[in-house]
Design a protein that fits this description.
This protein has 383 residues and is α/β, with parallel strands linked by helices. It contains twelve helices and twelve strands. The protein binds pyridoxal-5'-phosphate (PLP).
Length: 383
């Protein structure tokens, strides 16, 4: 029998994405143009931002670029502090450092692995400029609590929604909870542009500033670029970066977003199946939920008996790849000196968690195979 080979991530690239890419290349306007505007409109639609909304979407080259720009918009600079979970993506820590600021590490909630709101305020100092809160895998943060903390302390929240594009919080689409929301559309995300990102901000003035900042500061009107044309004269009023999105990436993203409902439903079903099969099997703890409100990015389990690497090797021998998202920030040498609160949950769970394969339109046969192999591992550990 041929051994299965199941990757952790598998992009859903079908004939529509390939046709969109070919068309984009044939049009021949390779930089930022009409498709980027259409992509921004598609993102706004997913987030429920209608014409009356004061929120606007600005597409950029990566999620990291979106985070960097959000922090600059807030005015994060040399010697400032940004509170964020140590259990977060390195892109967030580096975006903070890129502004000359330092991350201050806060712990997470054990049941969702998202930021623990009750641990934030004790870390606020006169240097704190903002909090970055990240939705993780199949969970979203306690956004109402975060909004209260933001209001009480007059500190904005940057919502890292790299994992939750197309998800909801209490029935409201993600993108509406805080003053800054970023998305990533990198190769492994539920919706990919191959590489891409977006930032949602409040107010036309901020949108306009960001449109210049993503184009090395050039103030030429986005509307001109959106007609696949460029201006030859413009001003530069402030610091900017080459962070714009290109038409080719936007065109792929547009065809992905058209499939969002199917992508979300298939991933929710896969998570439900994982949970049903893996709950109550001893040393494995599977995150619980009905997954009704989320567009799940990853499904992970905790391996509770300290045998995570054996577990991963056992699965790999059976053709199942797994991942570890992530190592803790304070364990990286570059961030090891950063200020922090108690990180007991982070230190515990970063030794336990394993990401299982999760794909859009994943077959039930593959999930059955994976959960059977996991059950065999548990049996072996018991004997
Ligand atoms: C939580 C989180 N934030 C930010 C990023 C950075 O996004 P990008 O890879 O598009 O730069 C990622 C990417 O994996 C992520 O998972």
């Amino acid at each position: 029998m041929k051994l299965k080979s199941i990757p952790v991530f598998k992009p859903l690239i079908e004939k529509e994405e390939i046709a969109a890419a070919v068309e984009s290349l044939e049009i021949g306007w390779l930089g930022m143009g009409r498709s980027v505007q259409e992509f921004e409109e598609s993102v706004a639609q997913v987030c429920g931002l209608n014409a009356d909304s004061d929120r606007g979407v600005v597409a950029v080259s990566t999620g990291h670029a979106a985070l960097h720009l959000a922090l600059l918009m807030i005015g994060v600079g040399d010697g400032d502090e940004v509170i964020t979970p140590s259990f977060n993506n390195a892109a967030d820590f580096q975006a903070i450092r890129a502004c000359g600021a330092v991350p201050v590490f806060v712990d997470i909630n054990e049941s969702t692995l998202c930021i623990d709101p009750s641990k934030i305020e004790e870390l606020i100092s006169e240097r704190t400029k903002c909090v970055i809160a990240m939705d993780y895998d199949v969970f979203v943060c306690e956004h109402d609590e975060l909004a209260l903390i933001s209001e009480r302390n007059n500190i904005p929240i940057v919502h890292d929604a790299a994992h939750s594009f197309g998800s909801f919080y209490k029935g409201v689409p993600i993108g509406n909870q805080h003053q800054y929301t970023m998305f990533s559309f990198d190769p492994v995300k539920t919706i990919t542009c191959i590489d891409g990102g977006a930032l949602i901000v409040c107010g036309d003035d901020k949108v306009k500033r960001l449109q210049a900042k993503r184009l090395i500061g050039m103030t030429q009107p986005a509307s001109q670029m959106y007609s696949n044309a460029r201006a030859w004269t413009y001003d530069i009023e402030e610091l900017g970066f080459r962070y714009h999105m290109a038409n080719l990436h936007a065109a792929i993203g547009i065809s992905q977003i058209k499939k969002l409902d199917d992508i979300r439903t298939s991933r929710q079903n896969a998570c439900r199946k994982y949970y049903e099969e893996l709950k109550d099997i001893g040393i494995i703890r599977a995150p619980k939920g009905d997954f009704q409100e989320v567009n799940p990015f990853l499904y992970y389990v905790h391996v509770l008996d300290g045998s995570r690497e054996d577990f991963r090797s056992f699965l790999l021998e059976k053709g199942i790849d797994t991942g570890v998202h992530w190592q803790a920030g304070h364990d990286f040498s570059y961030f090891s000196e950063c200020k922090r609160g108690s990180l007991d949950i982070t230190n515990k769970i970063t030794k336990e968690i394993v990401s299982l394969p999760l794909h859009s339109k994943m077959s039930e046969e593959d999930i059955n195979y994976i959960t059977d192999v996991i059950k065999d591992y548990v049996k072996q550990q018991k004997s």
